[in-house]
Amino acid sequence: MSSLLRPALTLFLMLSLMTGVAYPLAMTGIARLIFPQQAAGSLIEKDGKPVGSLLIGQAFSDPGYFWSRPSATSPMPYNASASSGSNLGPLNPALADAVKQRIEALRTADPGNNATMPADLVYSSASGLDPHISVAAADYQAGRVARARNVPLERVHALIAEHSEGPLLGFLGEPRVNVLALNLALDAAR
């Protein structure tokens, strides 16, 4: 029995070191060389202090800012350590109540807006952390943001256009806008 135990433990330790230490360190090193910003979390700094990441959504509720896609993480929204979907099906009353509350909040913030409300403003993404909204969702909010900031609507639309990203690789997904980048651009445009 002991003749089998020693090679098994040796193999276990070697594989643990290779897959648990060497491989992660090598991948981290390669990522830092090839994609330094992404490997560091794609952090955005303002006045030398990090204010967020381009990869994780943030909660905005002030009418003068574009609002992010709702978060499905709990106990607090946009919690990267709790990334997951809500797993609530379309017939679940909790999902229906959450959507009604989100629609009401958007209508209360912009009562004169009778445009069709984009779905990504009331439904969370699969991860619950999506930092992007559709261009339609940004356009839906443009009037409210322009009025709250007392800036021309055309200027807000120009900022949306400047910060719009096309589909990934030109064909995957829809055009989108990073909410944090857009809101920081709004602040810088003052």
Describe this structure in words.
The protein has 190 residues and is mostly helical. It has two domains: 1-40; 42-188, no CATH class. It is built from six helices and five strands, in the order ααββαβααββα. The chain has a three-stranded antiparallel β-sheet. Strands 1-2 form a two-stranded antiparallel ribbon. A hairpin with a 2-residue loop joins β1 and β2. α4 (135-149) runs antiparallel to α5 (153-162). It is elongated and about 80 Å long. The protein starts with a helix and ends with a helix. 22% of the residues are buried.
Core attributes:
three-stranded antiparallel sheet, 190 residues, elongated
Short description:
The protein has 190 residues and is mainly alpha-helical. It has helices spanning 2-34, 36-39, 93-109, 135-149, 153-162, 179-188, and strands at 43-46, 49-53, 132-134, 164-165, 176-178.
The total count of strands amounts to: 5
In spatial order, strands of the major sheet run 3-5-4
Q: So what's the overall shape? A: elongated
Radius of gyration: 22 Å
Give the DSSP E fraction (strand runs of 2 or more residues). Answer: 5-15%
Indicate how many domains the architecture comprises.
Answer: 2
Average pLDDT over all residues: 90
Return residue spans where pLDDT drops below 50 for at least 5 consecutive residues: none
Helix content: 40-55%
Largest sheet: 3 strands, antiparallel
Given the helix and strand composition, which structural class is it?
Answer: mainly alpha
Summarize the helix and strand pattern as letters: HHEEHEHHEEH
Number of helices: 6
* Alpha carbon gap, first and last residue: 76 Å
